[in-house]
Design a protein that fits this description.
By secondary structure, this protein is an all-alpha fold. It has a domain of 56 residues. Helix content is 73%, strand content 0%. It is built from 3 helices and no strands. The model has no long low-confidence stretch (mean pLDDT 80).
């Protein structure tokens, strides 16, 4: 592929004029700037998705932990309930 491109350039006639050179350069610059803008918007979207996922997983984790703690401590005879006889006599040694 590279050799074909080099052969094509070698067969092409020499063009020493500078007409169109500046517009070609600016077209390349504009293409690069458009690529950077698209990469920046993609990166921003990825960061937003990551932040939403992190916040959602933290919320679910806290909800799950709170439901487990409340389920364990609701019984009057649970060993670590604040007013259970075993806790009042010995103290909470969790």
């Amino acid at each position: 592929m590279l050799q074909e491109d080099l052969d094509r350039l070698a067969r092409a006639p020499l063009d020493r004029s500078l007409t169109g050179l500046e517009s070609a350069i600016w077209q390349g610059v504009e293409t690069r700037m458009a690529d950077r803008r698209s990469y920046a918007s993609t990166f921003a979207a990825q960061i937003a998705i990551l932040a939403i996922g992190t916040v959602a997983s933290l919320a679910v984790g806290h909800q799950w932990a709170a439901s487990r703690e409340s389920r364990v401590s609701t019984s009057a005879l649970a060993p670590y309930t604040r007013l259970a006889a075993s806790t009042l006599l010995v103290g909470d040694r969790r």
